Amino acid sequence: NLAVSEGEILGHLYAKGIKPDRGQKLDKEMVKMVCREYDVEVIDVGPTKIEEMAKKIEILDEEDLDNLQDQPPVLTIMGHVDHGKTTLLDYIRKSKVAASEAGGITQGLERIRFKCLLMALCSHVFFLTLLDMSCVPIIVAINKIDKEGALDRVMQVMQELSSNGCQPEDWGGDVPMVQISALTGKNVNDLLETTMLVAELQELKANPDRNAKGTIIEAGLDKSKGPVATFIVQNGTLKKGDVVVCGEAFGKIRALFDDAGKRVDDAGPSIPVQVIGLNNVPLAGDEFKVVDSPDIARERAKERAISLRDERILAKAGDGKITLSSFASAVTTGKNSGLDLHQLNIIMKVDLQGSIEAVKQALQKLPQDNVTLKFILQATGDVSTSDVDLAVASKAIIFGFSVKVSGSVKSYADNKGVEIRIYKVIYDLLDDMRAAMEGLLDPVE
Ligand code: GDP
């Protein structure tokens, strides 16, 4: 603690040309600057919130934390055909050119690359489930407000969005919504400013000095080039010759093209590139990862293909959901609301390949006279949203052994009514499972 007044601290910052807003939290650099004035050493304890957040969305690994650099944000515009995406992009491009001709592209405008901008139209609202929305911040642009009668419909659009879980900031939610006309340019500046603000708050960081990973934003089959996919690199640097795996597809990158269609040798964080060299067309929204060899890529793609096939089969199985404790109470009361009380479906995520068999065997040793355990999925890795989807489809509970559940996956599961139980000690897991099978389990908090 520095025994100095707030005013004095602000004075030092103002002297350096920094004007924090009232109540704004000082970032690491600001704190260091102030402490230097008083000859006080700064000890950095642990990762910052941004680093924690990035780790949460599984983009950064532990080893990246020492080598983080600013990552330019990327703007993704999504909307139905005719909502005005092209018109908006043209307008933004033109204003960028105009700004640069006038001698000053604003730094912020240059930096806008990312953030998800959802276009809603006054006639109908568009919803997208492709990207995990709980991770990517969304700004909604309500377009074509220049049209006659459009303003009357804005409220209706906002209501529709809000009833789909997209709460406008103006109504106390966290999704900024800007009413624009891409044609006349009305409020487009407001939209860009909002985008920059959201981008600033994200303080995206990445480590360019590692194997690339990121997300596929679109993919298709080109008559002459074969499978083509647009990747957005979220961490690391993607290079020609890298071996990648993306969902069920894999391959060696033969060529990369930037957004102007020009061949490039590599692409760093936040850079969208079109790649060729994959054996198959991957799914938009899937993750891609550079791996060490074609054999590893082939193996990973095969595993993914098998798990997708199982998910598809199970998705047809039903839409019920259960929790371990509801299963337990159903066992006790005999009120089963359609559940098969003789079988408990389990999705099991563990930290190491070697733990799968060990945990499974321990569970299988539990007495299964009344209730049998069925393993729907057993895999390594943290619990993901697709595990949650699978749990819904197969009326399963998820348990993890020494794995993590990110905040976004947790809220996704909460929304879907899926229970995730994480254990570190095998005996706790066995106790709970035995209790559930005997109808004697307390719900998790
Ligand atoms: P996209 O399919 O989403 O890329 O939509 P376009 O940008 O091609 O726009 C579809 C049509 O809507 C075109 O005729 C545009 O001129 C028109 N349009 C786009 N934005 C606006 C707007 O703000 N106001 C009006 N009146 N028309 C617009």
The major pleated sheet works out as: 6 strands, antiparallel, barrel
Mean pLDDT: 74
Strand content: 15-25%
Total helical segments = 13
Helices and strands: which structural class?
alpha/beta
Helix content: 25-40%
Terminal CA distance: 36 Å
Q: Give the strand line-up of the largest sheet.
A: 7-8-14-11-10-15
Q: What is the count of β-strands? A: 19
* Bound compounds: guanosine-5'-diphosphate
Summarize the structure.
It contains 13 helices and 19 strands.
Element layout with pairings:
Blueprint: H1 6-15, H2 28-37, H3 49-56, E1 69-70, E2 76-78, H4 85-101, H5 107-111, E3 116-121, E4 138-143, H6 150-163, E5 177-179, H7 188-202, E6 205-206, E7 213-222, E8 226-235, E9 238-239, E10 243-246, E11 249-257, E12 263-264, E13 266-267, E14 272-278, E15 287-291, H8 294-315, H9 324-333, E16 343-350, H10 353-364, E17 372-380, H11 385-394, E18 396-401, H12 407-416, E19 420-423, H13 426-437
Parallel strand pairs: 2-3, 3-4, 4-5, 16-17, 16-18, 18-19
Antiparallel strand pairs: 1-6, 7-8, 7-15, 8-14, 9-13, 10-11, 10-15, 11-12, 11-14
What key phrases describe this protein's structure?
445 residues, alpha/beta, six-stranded antiparallel barrel, four-stranded parallel beta sheet, 13 helices, 22% strand, globular, binds guanosine-5'-diphosphate
